[in-house]
Each structure stands twice: as structure tokens, then as C-alpha cells.
Backbone:
């Protein structure tokens, strides 16, 4: 697929998320599984963040993570392609007096060479599959080295090509959802409020392949491998004991084979070596 298609897809996803931006936090703030996912990602990140780090955040959305980083004393340059999402982030920044710790920029992660603030940074962070909205992830990854200091860290949260929970939906006859990751080489169609765009799925091996010359993999963790995906938001309330058991088991097995590879998401961290 050519660059024109990528631009059109980016514009479609930006329009979709801008349309949802004003209600985005309200939609998901009460979702127990999303809160679990955020906690897991933050615990992972805290293993590698040094005090007063400079952070480049890709697809920052409404700024939930940028605010969290800033409240820990870090400095975040938050980027997104959705003007609506950045508007919400700006409101959060001002309401919490975090102007000195959070800057922001409307910028595609496929055009990081055009960033106004090129770093170098201590940390690059991208949460909850924003990077799955491009078929040019290799291009994005190859831009990281020049943006990071030596020994800098990259942490990405992405959707892999296989999800255990989704495959089990075959038992309920939901063939399309159960197999959407299997037949997505040309992109799987996603939609928000009637706005359609495409996303792609990438395994950890794809990330390590394109970063192997300058980065070492530090860790890979499965996320929502045993805990159900967040679109099954009623699960914790309907089956609280089962949910707590699955959460405890996932926390034990998160970095073990095969569990780290078959979640709804995975978290991968790498260190720049040169």
C-alpha cells in the first residue's frame, strides 16, 4: 500500500477520534478492565523510568498518560494526529497547572522527522495500540534511534496477530471477530461512531526485527491474555471471583511463554544500545 493510502487512513482515524474526543474519557473511565490495563502498563513503565525523564509520547489521546507522567515529575512532549484529542489534553494540562511539564504537538508518528521538539529524549512511549493504525510501522520504528539518547527506553503497547480471547469467540459463532486478526494483511476495518479506518496487527518479533541494530529487547508482557479484553466490560461485575482469579493468574504468567504473545495486547520495552 502506498503513502497516499496511509495518509487517507490517518485522516480517517484522526476524524474518528476527534469526533469521540469530548466523550472519550466518560466512555471508558468506569471500565474496570481498562483501569487494570492502565495500571499494568504503568507498573511496567516504572521499571525503566528514571527521575525527571524527558518523554516523547506518540498517540497521546486525551492525555491520561501524559498527565500521569507529569504528576510523577517527568516532562512529556505529547503528540497525536487528532486535534480534538489534543484539545482535551490541553484542557487537562491547564486545569492541573502542568504547563511546565507537558507540551503538545499535532504530528503523525509517521512524520516524526517534522517534530518541533526532536529531543533527544530519555523515553519514547505509545499506549493502547495507536501504532496499530498504520501500515508503515517499520518507518515509525526506524525514526526512534535519532530521537533517543543512548540507553534511552522505548515502551510500546500493541495488538498482536493472535488473541486467545478473540479466538474463543468462534465457540459463540462470532466468526468475523474471532478471525479478524488472521486475515488482516491489508488492514482490518475499525470504526468509531460511523467513521471507518483500518488497523494492522504486529507481533513482538516485528518490533525487534526493525530495531535490532540499535536496540535490545528488555521485556515483553502479555496484556489481557487471561483477563478478558476491555470490550467485555461487564465481565468483572458478572463474575467477580473469576475475574479476580484471572487477574492474579495473568499477573503471574504475563512474561511467560506463550502467555506473553497471545493477549489482546502486549507491552514491549527496548533499550537503545548505540
Residues:
Amino acid at each position: 500500500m502506498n503513502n497516499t493510502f496511509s495518509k487517507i487512513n490517518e485522516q480517517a482515524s484522526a476524524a474518528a477520534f476527534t469526533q469521540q474526543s469530548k466523550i472519550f474519557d466518560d466512555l471508558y473511565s468506569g471500565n474496570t478492565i481498562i483501569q487494570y490495563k492502565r495500571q499494568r502498563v504503568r507498573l511496567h513503565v516504572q521499571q525503566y523510568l528514571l527521575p525527571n525523564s524527558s518523554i516523547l509520547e506518540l498517540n497521546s489521546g486525551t492525555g491520561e498518560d501524559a498527565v500521569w507522567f507529569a504528576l510523577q515529575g517527568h516532562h512529556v512532549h505529547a503528540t497525536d494526529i487528532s486535534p480534538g484529542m489534543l484539545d482535551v489534553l490541553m484542557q487537562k494540562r491547564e486545569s492541573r497547572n502542568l504547563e511546565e511539564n507537558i507540551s503538545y504537538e499535532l504530528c503523525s508518528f509517521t512524520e516524526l522527522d517534522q517534530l518541533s521538539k526532536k529531543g533527544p529524549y530519555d523515553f519514547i512511549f505509545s499506549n493502547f495500540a495507536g501504532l496499530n493504525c498504520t501500515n508503515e510501522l517499520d518507518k515509525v520504528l526506524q525514526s526512534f534511534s535519532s530521537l533517543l539518547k543512548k540507553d534511552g527506553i522505548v515502551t510500546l503497547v500493541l495488538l498482536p496477530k493472535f488473541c486467545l480471547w478473540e479466538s474463543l469467540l468462534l465457540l459463540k459463532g462470532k466468526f468475523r471477530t474471532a478471525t479478524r486478526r488472521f486475515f488482516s494483511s491489508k488492514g482490518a476495518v475499525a470504526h468509531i461512531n460511523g467513521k471507518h479506518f483500518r488497523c494492522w496487527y504486529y507481533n513482538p518479533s516485528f518490533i525487534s526485527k526493525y530495531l535490532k541494530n540499535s536496540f535490545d529487547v528488555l521485556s515483553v508482557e502479555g496484556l489481557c491474555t487471561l483477563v478478558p479484553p476491555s470490550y467485555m466490560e461487564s465481565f468483572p461485575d458478572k463474575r467477580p471471583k473469576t475475574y479476580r482469579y484471572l487477574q492474579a493468574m495473568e499477573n503471574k504468567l504475563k512474561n511467560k511463554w506463550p502467555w506473553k504473545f497471545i493477549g489482546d495486547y502486549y507491552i514491549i520495552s527496548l533499550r537503545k544500545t548505540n
